[in-house]
Amino acid sequence: MSIPDRAADAVAALTLDQKAALTSGADFWTTTQAGDVPSVMLTDGPHGLRKQRRSADHLGLHDSVPATCFPPAVALGASFDPELVERVGVALGIESAIEDVAVLLGPGINIKRSPLCGRNFEYFSEDPVVSGVIGAAWVRGVQSQGVGTSLKHFAANNQETDRLRVSSDVDPRTLREIYLRGFQRVVADARPWTVMCSYNRINGVHASEDPWLLTSVLRDEWGFDGLVVSDWGAVRDRVAALAAGLDLDMPSSDGRADAEVVAAVKEGRIDERLVDRSAARVASMAMRAAGRAPVTAPLDVDAHHALAREAAGRSIVLLKNSDGVLPLSRDARIAVVGAFAEHPRFQGAGSSLINPTRLDDALTHIRAAAGPDVAFAPGFSLESTADESTRVRLRAEAVAAAAGADVAVLFLGLPAPTESEGFDRTGIDLPADQLALLDEVRGANPRTVVVLSHGGVVALPFAGDVPGILDGSLLGQAGGAATADVLFGDVDPSARLTETVPVRIEDTPAFGNFPGEYGHVRYGEGLLVGYRWYDTRDLPVTFPFGHGLSYTTFDWSGASATVAGNGDVDVRVTVTNTGDRTGREVVQVYTGLEDSAVSRPVRELKAFGVVELAPRESREVALTVRRSDLAYWDVRVDAWIVEGGRYRIDVAASSRDLRGTVEVDLDGDEVDLPIARDSSLAEVFAHPVAADALRAALARHGGGGIAGSGDEDVRMMLASFPLGRMSMFGLPGAAIDEVVVAANR
Ligand code: BGC
């Protein structure tokens, strides 16, 4: 018997009280046991397992079983590599299975709308295709081990300020094309066991109580057949939430929510079948998890640490490398400066905090590679209480170390307390004492390479002043070793920015509309999120979306695009490694449509792929742009529509580094719009039947001059006139009605 059938049978044997109890947690992390339905554990996530040991609630964040801390999403996404991400997912699934966890609470795929969101380190990108493709790979990996995932936070949860109440006020097209598109892709491609609804409201409605979001869109349109779980404490009105399609309310409410559900059924306010349905979904999930063969082998700490190191190395973005400053020679006299080299900042704070099995620091690994003589000076203190004399002394020591070296490697970043789940940042600058240190260090040694650690994006006003910048964002427990791997060229840097580095916070798309006030945040920038904003408005940026260098060089040639039988677009380009080391290039495919009927960003990412090439090796990279990804959300018909026309296809190394441009002609989808009295003359003349009917009517009633006029000015002037107003040109009301009837017949 299938699991859903067994679950339905098990639920049929339960009392109403038991069924209601199934739809909420037994405690902070486990579901309720009832009849044949076992209790199972759901826990964080996402970049490692956070299974708490003693204190059961969020107050015990720091006390979880040791687990491998893989690179958080901010870094992993930058690999642009679904194959790598899937392997990390497999490892996460294994660790969850060893600890008997049913569902790992991730991935978080919300869009980085503003660089200030305190939780951006937990999300992949400012782009929905990157978030969707990488998120789907993560889900596939974890679920391949019989462990479920929870796609979160559904939806439009793009800030921490007032996160349990704020309404994300976003227009329907933007909601679909930017904020829901990634979720839709993961649901369709990877079928996560669960989706976690977010805390916030969307256009005034709590996500947990929104039947449109949780049922019409998620289930009816996207075909989701799993379980909807609340974010922890997201449910305000349990009965409304159940009716909207929220199956499992977490954590436990000590029976209060269950009693409300039972009362609502008894008083006839909701149909008992709603309870049956959600209870059966919980039962299915629990039975599916319980059916997994127990994993008794101990965690292979070394193997997972090695994978964490590989993933971290592939998540480091080489932003700048001039005068051959990198990779470092093992024979060079190296000065390492910056407290983060010794005390790495490797993950973000909040519910995703992992207790790592071990922790690599960069200094140890740089010394392991280049010898114990590598000089080190912390340069600044990570204690905010350090006094001025300490700061001056630390800086002086750092300058002395840098001055005596061939190259200075300076570790800068955001101190841990400045960013976390639960609150947003107030700016994007690095701490002033670090910037002052940088000025002095590069004054003492112009061959200064900056290595960055941060969850949210930081401004880099010094980008023009130093020859080398490595962006490590947050690399997980093996980031220190991985940083050394990249610094010395043992690993070729191949990650790319999944988020634009803006010049100033004032330039960012949500500036002025973030984080809102009095319970509302207006998504005023609409579709123009991330690079869509900077590129469409042609604003300067410090480093564009998709940017990242390698130690080798690549030549791109022969871009082509053809429309396949199913309407997808096949894009090909040949990439050649023209340097003398093996490297990986990330091929990005952007599309645009000039003269579109709807406003569009100048360029939008639609596909990407990674290719590894030995020196002088050449390979043709083939990527598919799905026709569905070319669709815009048409608010007239509430549907995805592909507009017909000549699409520009840019194959590119970043959103601003186009390596080839080709065009394809696509047939559009039919949009069946009824003609009404309010239809404009332009719409009427674009409609084959209505146009003829109107011309005939005008000819009959003496207004033929308007329709028949070859006079372009007149036609354009009248184009926006509603059909119904044609009475002012002498067309009787009855004739207008006849046109409407004929058009819609
Ligand atoms: C977070 C979720 C997390 C849950 C359980 C919430 O506060 O928003 O991401 O999975 O807690 O810890």
UniProtKB/TrEMBL annotation:
Similarity comment: family membership: Belongs to the glycosyl hydrolase 3 family.
Species classification: Bacteria, Bacillati, Actinomycetota, Actinomycetes, Pseudonocardiales
Keywords from the named record: Carbohydrate metabolism, Glycosidase, Hydrolase
Protein's UniProt name: Glycoside hydrolase family 3 C-terminal domain-containing protein
Domain of life: Bacteria
Pfam families: Fn3-like (PF14310), Glyco_hydro_3 (PF00933), Glyco_hydro_3_C (PF01915)
Organism: Pseudonocardia nematodicida
InterPro entries given in the database record: Cellulose_deg_GH3, Fn3-like, GH, Glyco_hydro_3_AS, Glyco_hydro_3_C, Glyco_hydro_3_C_sf, Glyco_hydro_3_N, Glyco_hydro_3_N_sf
GO function terms (MF aspect): hydrolase activity
Ranges for domain Fibronectin type III-like: 585-655
